[in-house]
Amino acid sequence: MLETLEMMLAGIATSLLLILIVSFRSRARVFCQYLRYMTGLQLTPGEVKKVFHLRGKAGVRDLFLELLIREDLESAPPVTPETPPIRLAAELINR
Fold first, then answer.
1. Which residues of 48-65 are buried (b: 16+ CB within 10 A; e: fewer)?
2. Measured between alpha carbons, how far is 13 from 7 in angstroms, rounded to an integer?
3. What is the DSSP code (8-state) at residue 37?
4. 64 CB contacts (<8 Å, ≥6 apart)?
5. What does the pLDDT look like over 67-90, one tens digit per residue?
6. In 3D, which of 39, 38, 48, 46 has the Cα closest to residue 71?
7. What element of type H or E holds 56?
């Protein structure tokens, strides 16, 4: 009976370890899916991993902001003195 219990605990521990490994390995893929869904920017998990290994978390954040700004500049109309002012997104939230 103890052997069965030990084998069951070993199986549960192995399953939890496998889930933990899979979740850590899929972080870049999930980030890229989230990024595409929320902003329309498309990155590959390999690009994110490369930047993370070279520059860390701050490097990935900088890459994201740089791509977001670049995309915004390409899609936004030019600002002229006649352009009406735009309300900031923070002003749309009643706090």
1. beebbeeeeeeebeebbe
2. 10
3. H
4. 35, 41
5. 888 888 777 777 777 777 776 666
6. 39
7. helix 45-75
Residue whose entry in the numeric block shows the structure tokens 């690009």: 47
Please enumerate in sequence order all residues whose Cβ is within 8 A of that of 29, keeping only pairs 6 or more positions apart, or say none: 45
User: Model-level pTM?
Assistant: 0.55
Taking residues 21-46, report their average pLDDT. Answer: 86
Determine the Cα–Cα distance for residues 95 and 90; give it in Å rounded to an integer. 9
Which pair of structure tokens corresponds to residue 59?
A: 């490097």
Cα–Cα distance for residue pair 89/86, rounded to 1 Å: 9
Residue 82 backbone phi and psi in degrees, to 5: -85, -10
| Residue 90 structure tokens | 């923070």
Return d(Cα 62, Cα 3) in angstroms, integer: 53
pLDDT at residue 43, as a whole number: 86
The answer to whether the CB of 12 falls within 8 A of the CB of 33 is: no
